[in-house]
C-alpha cells in the first residue's frame, strides 16, 4: 500500500518570485519522506543554458545534482526541482528533427499506435512538448489529425511546417483549449518529456481531460533499468525530474485510475520505455506489461543495483580521465562530437575543459553552434569547418555515445581520419 500523498509537497511554490529551486524532501509520486540518496554529481549549470563564443565569462547559476530513491514506490528522482522557466527558456536550443534515430523511432511509434489502437483519419493525436513537430509529422503523413503543445520558440518551426501548435506549457488552460478547439484526443503522446514536468499529478489530471474516457496516453521516457545497466550518469540532470521503471510508472498512473495496457523497451536516448496507458478496464492488457515487470529489480534489489551503479560511475570517470591524460601527454589533439543535453553532465562531472577538448563539432544547422558548452569555454562549431580538412584532430570524443556507431560511420564517410573515444559504459577507443 502506497502512503498517502502529502499535500504540503505538492503545494510548494516552485516558480514564484525569485525562488528558482526547491529541494525534494518528499517523493514526487507518493509523497513519502523515506528517500535514500543514491549519489551526488556536484553542482551543474542548466544543460541547455549556453553563452555565445567570445562573450566575457560572468556569473552563471549552477544547481546540486543528486539522485534519490523512494523506498515506498521505487521512484528514482532528482534531488532538486529547478524553475522550468530557467531550464526551458524560449531560446531552448534542442530540436528533435536532427537525429535519425528519433525519426526512425517516431515513425515506429506512429505505425505501432495506429495498428495497436486501430486509429483512423478521424482520430486526433496531441503531443505534449511537441518541439519541432517531428513526432506529429509521422502521424500527419499517415492521414491523422494532429495538434502540438510546445512552450518554446522551437514550436514555431512546427507551425512553419504545417503542424498546428499551441505555444504554451502543458497545463489545465492549454488542455482545455485543445479540447474546446478539437475535441477529445484518441491519443496523447509525451516523448521524452513526461519525466521533465513538475507537479506530475496535475499533469496527469490534465492529460485525462484531453483523452476523455476512450483515449490512450503514450509516454516515452528514459528507462531506469537501461540507465543502470549502461552507467548512464550523463542522463542525470535537472530537466529530468524522474527516472522511471515500469513499476514506478504503474504506481504513479494507478493513483489516477489509469492502467498500463502495453509496454515496450526502445533504443532511443540509450534505452527508453514506451508505455500505453488508459482508464482502467477500457482495453485488454498486453502480455508485455507483466513480462517487463517480472524482469525489473524492485525494493531491496533495486537499492543494491543503485549502489553498484554509483561504484561503476566512479570507475568510468577515472578510466576516461586516464585515456584522455595519456593522449594529451602524447601531444594528441582531441575534439568532441555533438552537444546533446546529456553531454553537459559528462563534461561537468568528469571535469573537461578547453585545455582537454579543443572544440565540440555539431551538425550544420544546430542551434548550439556558436555557443560554449555550459559551464565551460569549450566552443561548439560547425563540423563541416573543422573535421574534414587538412588539420583534423587526432581523436574525437563521442558525447552522443549511445549512437556512436551511426556517428562514426557518417564522419568516416565524410573524410574524418582520426580515432574515436566512446566514454560509456566503459571508456574505450575505436578506429
What does this entry look like structurally?
By secondary structure, the chain is of the alpha/beta class. It is built from 14 helices and 19 strands. The relative contact order is 0.12. It is globular. It has a 7-stranded mixed beta sheet, sandwiched between helices. The chain has a 6-stranded mixed beta sheet with strand order 16-15-14-17-18-19, with helices on both faces. The longest helix has 30 residues. The chain has 2 domains: 331 residues, Rossmann fold (3-Layer(aba) Sandwich); 99 residues, NAD(P)-binding Rossmann-like Domain (Rossmann fold, 3-Layer(aba) Sandwich), CATH 3.40.50.720. α6 runs parallel beside α7.
- Quaternary arrangement of the chains shown? single chain
Shape: globular
The CATH class designation of the largest domain is: Alpha Beta
The percentage of residues in β strands lies in 15-25%
The CATH homologous superfamily of the largest domain is termed: Vaccinia Virus protein VP39
CATH architecture of the largest domain: 3-Layer(aba) Sandwich
End-to-end distance:
53 Å
In short:
The chain has helices at residues 7-10, 84-87, 100-117, 134-140, 155-160, 172-182, 200-211, 224-229, 246-254, 287-295, 300-329, 341-350, 383-386, 404-414; strands spanning 21-23, 35-44, 63-70, 76-78, 80-82, 124-128, 145-150, 165-167, 187-191, 216-222, 242-243, 258-266, 272-279, 334-337, 360-362, 380-382, 395-398, 419-422, 428-430.
Amino acid at each position: 500500500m502506497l502512503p498517502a500523498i502529502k499535500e504540503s509537497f505538492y503545494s510548494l511554490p516552485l516558480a514564484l518570485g525569485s525562488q528558482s529551486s526547491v529541494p525534494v524532501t518528499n517523493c514526487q509520486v507518493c509523497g513519502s519522506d523515506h528517500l535514500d540518496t543514491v549519489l551526488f554529481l556536484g553542482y551543474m549549470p542548466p544543460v541547455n543554458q549556453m553563452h555565445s563564443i567570445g562573450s566575457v565569462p560572468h556569473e552563471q547559476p549552477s544547481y546540486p545534482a543528486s539522485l534519490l530513491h523512494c523506498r515506498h514506490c521505487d521512484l528514482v528522482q532528482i534531488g532538486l526541482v529547478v524553475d522550468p522557466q530557467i531550464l526551458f527558456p524560449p531560446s531552448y536550443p534542442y530540436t528533435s528533427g536532427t537525429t535519425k534515430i528519433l525519426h526512425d523511432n517516431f515513425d515506429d511509434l506512429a505505425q505501432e499506435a495506429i495498428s495497436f489502437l486501430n486509429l483512423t483519419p478521424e482520430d486526433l493525436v496531441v503531443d505534449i512538448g511537441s518541439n519541432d513537430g517531428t513526432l506529429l509529422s509521422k502521424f500527419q503523413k499517415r492521414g491523422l489529425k494532429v495538434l502540438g503543445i510546445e512552450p518554446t520558440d522551437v514550436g514555431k518551426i512546427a507551425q512553419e511546417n504545417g503542424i498546428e501548435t499551441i505555444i504554451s506549457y502543458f497545463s489545465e488552460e492549454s488542455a482545455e483549449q485543445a479540447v474546446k478547439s478539437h475535441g477529445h484526443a484518441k491519443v496523447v503522446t509525451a516523448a521524452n518529456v513526461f519525466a521533465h514536468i513538475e507537479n506530475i499529478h496535475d499533469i496527469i489530471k490534465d492529460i485525462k481531460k484531453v483523452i476523455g474516457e476512450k483515449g490512450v496516453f503514450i509516454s516515452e521516457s528514459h528507462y531506469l533499468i537501461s540507465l543502470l545497466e549502461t552507467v548512464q550518469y550523463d542522463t542525470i540532470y535537472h530537466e529530468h525530474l524522474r527516472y522511471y521503471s515500469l513499476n514506478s510508472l504503474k504506481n504513479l498512473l494507478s493513483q489516477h485510475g489509469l492502467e498500463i495496457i502495453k509496454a515496450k523497451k526502445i533504443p532511443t536516448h540509450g534505452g527508453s520505455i514506451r508505455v500505453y496507458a488508459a482508464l482502467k478496464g477500457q482495453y485488454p492488457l498486453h502480455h508485455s506489461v507483466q513480462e517487463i515487470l517480472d524482469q525489473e529489480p524492485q525494493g531491496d534489489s533495486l537499492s543494491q543495483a543503485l549502489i553498484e551503479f554509483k561504484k561503476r560511475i566512479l570507475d568510468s570517470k577515472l578510466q576516461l580521465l586516464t585515456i584522455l591524460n595519456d593522449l594529451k601527454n602524447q601531444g594528441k589533439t582531441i575534439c568532441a562530437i555533438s552537444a546533446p543535453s546529456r553531454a553537459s553532465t559528462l563534461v561537468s562531472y568528469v571535469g573537461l575543459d578547453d585545455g582537454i577538448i579543443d572544440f565540440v563539432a555539431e551538425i550544420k544547422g544546430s542551434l548550439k553552434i556558436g555557443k560554449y558548452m555550459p559551464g565551460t569555454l569549450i566552443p561548439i562549431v560547425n563540423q563541416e569547418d573543422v573535421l574534414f580538412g587538412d588539420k583534423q584532430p587526432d581523436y574525437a570524443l563521442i558525447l552522443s555515445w549511445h549512437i556512436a556507431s551511426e556517428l562514426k560511420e557518417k564522419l568516416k564517410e565524410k573524410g574524418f581520419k582520426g580515432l574515436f573515444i566512446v566514454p560509456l559504459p566503459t571508456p574505450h577507443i575505436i578506429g
